[in-house]
Amino acid sequence: MQERLKELQQEALNQIESAQSLKELQDVKVSYLGKKGPITEVLRGMGKLSADERPIIGQMANDVRGAISDKLEEKVAKLEELEVEKRLASESIDVTLPGRPANTGVRHPLTAVVENIEDIFIGMGFGVSEGPEVETDYYNFEALNLPKDHPARDMQDTFYITEELLLRTHTSPVQARTMEKYAGKGPVKIICPGKVFRRDDDDATHSHQFMQVEGLYIDENVRMSDLKGVLLEFAKKFFGPDQKIRLRPSFFPFTEPSVEVDISCVMCKGDGCRICKETGWIEVLGAGMVHPRVLEMGGFDSKKYSGFAFGMGVERLAMLKYGIDDIRHFYLNDKRFLEQFKRA
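Structure for Phenylalanine--tRNA ligase alpha subunit, as requested:
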């Protein structure tokens, strides 16, 4: 049996030495060291040996296994090293070639516009507040002076989930929640950017989902002239230093008095063109002084505090700023459209 083990060791070492690939080495390992290999068969026959011979044969079998395993590891390392050398020899790198440019993404134009708006108002001392897109009827309507039977609710076609839950139709609920948070103690000076939802037919100028930025300022002795000054400063920072605005009387349930705000046409600079319908003005947002009832429902004393609020559509501002003629471009994910907004 000792002679047989010596023969197996020599055979295995010879095959390992002549092996030219890792697969051949794996075959040798399975053949000699596997459960069905000849060394295992020798060990199974140890039961027929005398008590004196068993430890000798057992030790010898372990030595043979160890010698074969060591030789296999040595040969594997050598073949792997040769493989690396061969690959390095076949692969050449020209370090003088220019690098391949990495394709990077770009900020979505709506994201860029929202960030621009935020920067402008933060520069005027406003904070940024957010709220849930799934709102209660109370915060979306009632807290803004729109009780359940108010006819002005018809102005906003709403996606209802239940009788009391809905997708918000504007970001004004964030203003109502913020007033509650301040518990009647001013000043409050915030803008509320976010997505809103209305049941509308999608076309070049309308979408069932769009973005708004609304603003709220509450303090003692806040006046309409403060509102006009803030909006004029915003228009100049957003559209250019020569921009003008005008305020026209309007109606919103949550402000009194209410105004529509126009800017001088960004296309013709006020001279009159097809875009502004020859008027020289383009409507961009609604605003007004916060209704005393809205102040009271938010926890503020309307005799002590006053305030103004405004709301603007982000897509409309982006379309005017960049000369875009179809709101659907913002949501189609057309790379040709989006890549136009890459930063230099």
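The longest strand covers residues 209-219.
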